[in-house]
Design brief:
Blueprint: E1 13-17, E2 20-28, H1 33-52, H2 55-71, H3 73-83, H4 88-108, E3 116-117, E4 124-131, E5 134-138, H5 146-157, E6 161-165, H6 171-184, E7 191-193, H7 199-206, E8 211-217, H8 220-229, E9 235-239, E10 244-248, H9 254-266, E11 276-282, H10 286-298, E12 301-302, H11 318-333, E13 337-341, E14 343-344, E15 358-361, H12 368-371, E16 378-384, H13 387-395, E17 399-400, E18 402-406, H14 410-419, E19 424-427, E20 443-444, H15 458-462, E21 463-470
Parallel strand pairs: 5-6, 5-8, 6-7, 8-9, 10-11, 10-18, 11-16, 12-14, 15-16, 18-19
Antiparallel strand pairs: 1-2, 3-4, 4-21, 13-15, 17-20
């Protein structure tokens, strides 16, 4: 078996319903390496005309894309439920955020700005921000449209052409998003979709000399492959794994903290890079908080996303279910105890990829549940002796995407947010959830480092700086 996590194949892309895996949602032909390379050449040729458009023209197309997504929101939300497994409320929220990404990008089209500098000679000096040309967006299945929009929309706003390579698990969602943009007026050559999971096609896509930037969200393993295969000139923006820890202090509002921790750990079936993997609780309130958290887990129902009573959906794939089930069994075999566990809907298809939300206590410190990204609805509760001990644990992680503290003390919250070495720090909030305007990115192994996503800062990744000197005082020669 190849060690490359990207498969060397071009068999058709078939997505299925994780709640009922026998049901096929969509099928697409997988791109060959030659087709991937041709897509890059087509995007490169189309990028110049798109870049020459006035900012207002690109803004109108992006704002129109937001309008199309809003008008077709229910259709897309139901597709997300069927293809990725989200419950319908979360899917609707994702579609709404996707539309917001395009509305923000419509504004960003007017903010591709330069800077003027004081004259040091007879020349004036200023900078221009110019589009890179071709941007490749490689996106995961867990937020198949909102994460894609966060990459696509700013790149289009700045005048780039974009090639979207969606996860095969959510191939139809990626195609729907691109189609919405096309219906809004974005030319098809300017925004293309390359389907499939072929390592050779991916190498052709990211390794082409015309590919000037690669934005990727996904696993460390695939990120390592992309680093090796991307063209040396290509700018890289990687959002990788997170190992996210929450601290609950003894003075916290425990009921609120339990609600937020449960939402961060179990919402979206835990399949989110900002999900809570473990919670450190100060010893005086450990028993009370664990009981509250266990009650919230026990109240959750795993079921089909389109079923009204479902709190969480299935794992997105059979491999996800098998990995999480093995992880839970391993923790229990190692001496862990279940402090609370959700139930399975009576209407759930037995063949679905079900993993019940579970609160664990007594997990050995070095067990993978405590030391790595869980990416599923399993949560470990551990005691801790004070804020400094918690910060030592948090700052010792390689993956430092997001952390949170629950406390009523403003000084404790301030000390924690200053000292926590993570890209995102929250006080009295769940680890999941982020706005479209603030930057999003982790530290350490969670990111490529230089370019966070989101907001106005997204323009830095998708544009180059050109410095101009102009001697406008020289007399014109006859």
């Amino acid at each position: 078996m190849s060690s490359n996590p990207l498969a060397h194949q071009t068999s058709p892309v078939v997505s299925t319903d994780p709640s009922a895996p026998a049901e096929v949602v969509a099928e697409f032909p997988a791109a060959t390496p030659e087709e991937a390379a041709a897509a890059v050449r087509t995007a490169h040729a189309a990028s110049a005309d798109w870049a020459r458009l006035p900012a207002g023209a690109r803004a109108r197309a992006l704002d129109a894309a937001a309008g199309v997504l809003t008008a077709e929101a229910e259709e897309l939300a139901r597709l997300i439920c069927r293809e990725e497994g989200k419950v319908i409320g979360a899917a609707r929220g994702e579609v709404a955020k996707t539309a917001e990404q395009f509305r923000l990008a419509a504004q960003l089209a007017f903010l591709v700005e330069g800077t003027t500098y004081p004259a040091e000679s007879r020349s004036a000096a200023w900078t221009l921000r110019v589009p890179l040309g071709v941007v490749v967006a490689v996106t995961p299945w867990n937020f198949p449209v909102s994460l894609a929009a966060r990459k696509i929309a700013p790149a289009l706003a700045a005048g780039n052409a974009v090639i979207l390579k969606p996860s095969p698990v959510a191939a139809a969602c990626g195609a729907f998003l691109a189609g919405a943009c096309h219906r809004a007026g974005v030319p098809e050559d300017v925004l293309q979709v390359v389907q499939g999971d072929s390592a050779d096609a991916m190498a052709a896509l990211v390794g082409a000399p015309e590919t000037r930037a690669v934005s990727f969200t996904g696993s460390d393993a695939v990120g390592a492959v992309l680093r090796r295969t991307a063209h040396p000139w290509a700018r890289l923006q990687f959002e990788l794994g997170g190992h996210n820890t929450v601290l609950v202090c003894a003075d916290a509002d425990l009921a609120h903290a339990a609600e937020e921790v449960a939402a961060g750990a179990f919402g979206l079936t835990g399949q989110v890079c900002t999900g809570t993997d473990r919670v450190l609780v100060e010893r005086p309130v450990l028993a009370e908080f664990t009981a509250l958290l266990g009650e919230r887990a026990a109240a959750l129902v795993a079921g089909p996303g389109l079923e009204a009573g479902s709190s969480v959906g299935p794992a997105a794939t059979a491999a996800q279910r098998e990995r999480l089930t093995a992880l839970l069994d391993s923790a229990l075999d190692a001496g862990a105890s279940v402090a609370g566990q959700g139930t399975l809907s009576a209407a759930a298809d037995p063949s679905g990829h079900w993993v019940r939300p579970t609160v664990l206590t007594g997990v050995p410190a070095k067990h993978p549940v405590n030391t790595g990204e869980v990416f599923g609805p399993l949560l470990s509760v551990l005691p801790v002796d004070g804020v400094e001990a918690a910060l030592t644990e948090i700052n010792g992680d390689d993956h430092r995407l997001v952390t949170a503290v629950h406390t009523r003390d403003l000084g404790t919250g301030g000390r924690f947010l200053r000292a926590a070495r993570c890209g995102i720090v929250k006080v009295n909030e769940r680890t999941t959830g982020n706005g479209v305007a603030p930057p999003f990115g982790g530290w350490g192994a969670s990111s490529s480092g230089a370019f966070p996503e989101g907001g106005r800062g997204a323009l830095d990744f998708v544009t180059d700086t050109k410095t101009v000197y102009c001697d406008y005082l020289t007399p014109r020669e006859n």
